[in-house]
């Protein structure tokens, strides 16, 4: 329970220090100032949401390290204490991320609605605006076909994405859920990571897939010039596979003078070095605190930020996670309280596509081993 900056727990008064945002047990003389005794360990709880690497730096600046969860006993003592002090009321700074997640859910719902509508009415439906390709003049050079198909109100010019070459731009306002066209290309069954202009599509009425390959400008249209975003703020177009073809639809209102950018999938993202992972895909609304920053060392395995090995683990098993996104060599260990009223570890992945370059900001825990029982 929180009352005007003071957290009250049963039989214990914890004062919130504005400098460093620490909880300190004012009655506890066993741990040094800024830390509270939890069973045989000394912890400090930093309530200001902070990035992963900065969390570890703050702990080290206080002559400590992050919480080393090296046993079930220690994790249980820590989580029970967190529940006791009412830490669930601490601000998580995830409101904007929730909004983005809701937006993506709404867009996904609209994708499904569009596909059902298209199967019934085709492009004659009055529910969606379809923008057709521009008519290509007779006798035009074949290699200019894709560029010449660009509709009025749009243009092909140098991309804002470094090294991307040409990109597709809108010269006029385009409302959300506008259908920009159908992705055109050569149809084949070969699948390769080098096919940078391809979409894989499920066959209609049978098993298997085929590929729509727009690498050749003579056999494609202007949609081949859409580049991939590096952040959620840049993304304004989505692909909509439906009835064996791929449509492009605006996922938000797009202002004049804006480059049109569509996410081509995790495989292409890995090629670009971009991970499109939303934090809530991992956290799923759970209360989360950063307990440690873990490093993978080839000859030692996983180590905590005090360089002790990770010998005890309690990872959450996300059965819905079908992604192939790999963890970075350095990643966060998040202590999370889930809807089943249980605590689990969650690996903090690279969320910068949604959070910005600083990454996910969360409350975090430091540990002072110098005063721990049996430690000199």
Structure, described:
- This protein starts with a strand and ends in a 9-residue tail after the last strand.
- The protein has a four-stranded antiparallel beta sheet, with no helix packed on it. A four-stranded antiparallel beta sheet has the order 5-6-21-7. It has a four-stranded antiparallel beta sheet with strand order 18-17-19-20.
- 19% of the residues lie in helices and 28% in strands.
- With 376 residues, it is an alpha+beta fold.
- The radius of gyration is 26 Å and the shape is elongated.
- Strand 8 and strand 9 form a beta hairpin.
Q: How many helices in DSSP terms?
A: 7
Strand/helix succession: EEEEEEHEHHHEEEEEEEEEHHEEEEHE
Shape: elongated
| CA-atom Rg in angstroms | 26 Å
Number of strands: 21
**Relative strand content:** 25-35%
pLDDT below 50 for ≥5 consecutive residues: which ranges?
1-21, 23-28
Helical residue percent band:
10-25%
Mean pLDDT: 87
Which short descriptors sum up this protein?
4-stranded antiparallel sheet; disordered N terminus; 376 residues; 7 helices; alpha+beta; 21 strands
List the helices and strands and how they pair.
Blueprint: E1 2-3, E2 6-9, E3 12-17, E4 22-25, E5 36-38, E6 41-50, H1 52-61, E7 65-66, H2 72-84, H3 95-121, H4 145-148, E8 154-158, E9 166-170, E10 179-182, E11 186-188, E12 198-202, E13 209-213, E14 237-242, E15 245-250, E16 258-259, H5 266-272, H6 279-283, E17 287-297, E18 301-303, E19 330-337, E20 343-348, H7 352-355, E21 362-367
Antiparallel strand pairs: 1-2, 2-3, 3-4, 5-6, 6-21, 7-21, 8-9, 9-16, 10-15, 11-13, 12-13, 14-15, 17-18, 17-19, 19-20
């Amino acid at each position: 329970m929180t009352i005007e900056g003071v957290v009250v727990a049963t039989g214990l008064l914890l004062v919130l220090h504005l400098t460093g945002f620490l909880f300190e047990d004012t009655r506890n003389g066993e741990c040094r100032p800024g830390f509270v005794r939890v069973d045989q360990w000394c912890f400090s709880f930093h309530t200001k949401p902070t990035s992963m690497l900065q969390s570890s730096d703050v702990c080290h600046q206080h002559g400590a390290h992050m919480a080393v969860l090296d046993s079930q006993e220690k994790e249980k003592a820590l989580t029970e204490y967190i529940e006791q002090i009412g830490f669930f009321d601490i601000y998580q700074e995830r409101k904007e991320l929730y909004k983005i997640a809701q937006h993506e859910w709404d867009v996904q719902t609209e994708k499904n609605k569009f596909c059902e509508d298209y199967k019934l009415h085709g492009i004659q439906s009055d529910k969606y605006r379809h923008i057709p390709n521009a008519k290509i003049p007779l006798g035009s050079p074949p290699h200019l076909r894709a560029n010449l198909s660009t509709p009025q109100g749009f243009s092909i010019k140098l991309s804002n994405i470094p090294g991307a070459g040409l990109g597709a731009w809108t010269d006029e306002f385009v409302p959300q859920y506008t259908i920009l066209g159908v992705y055109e290309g050569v149809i084949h069954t070969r699948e390769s990571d080098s096919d940078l202009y391809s979409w894989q599509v499920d066959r209609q009425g049978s098993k298997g897939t085929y590929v729509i390959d727009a690498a050749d400008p003579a056999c494609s249209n202007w949609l081949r010039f859409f580049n991939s975003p590096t952040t959620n703020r840049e993304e304004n177009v989505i692909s909509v596979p439906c009835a064996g073809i791929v449509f492009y639809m605006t996922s938000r209102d797009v202002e004049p003078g804006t480059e049109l950018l569509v996410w081509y999938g995790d495989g292409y993202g890995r090629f670009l070095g971009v991970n499109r992972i939303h934090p809530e895909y991992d956290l799923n609304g759970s209360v989360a605190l950063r307990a440690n920053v873990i490093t993978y060392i080839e000859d030692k395995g996983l180590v905590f930020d005090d360089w002790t090995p990770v010998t005890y683990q309690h990872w959450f098993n996300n059965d819905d996670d079908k992604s192939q996104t790999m963890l970075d060599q350095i990643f966060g260990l998040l202590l999370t309280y889930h809807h089943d009223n249980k605590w689990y570890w969650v690996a903090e992945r690279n969320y910068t596509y949604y959070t910005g370059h600083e990454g996910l900001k969360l409350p975090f825990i430091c540990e002072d081993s110098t005063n721990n029982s049996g430690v000199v």
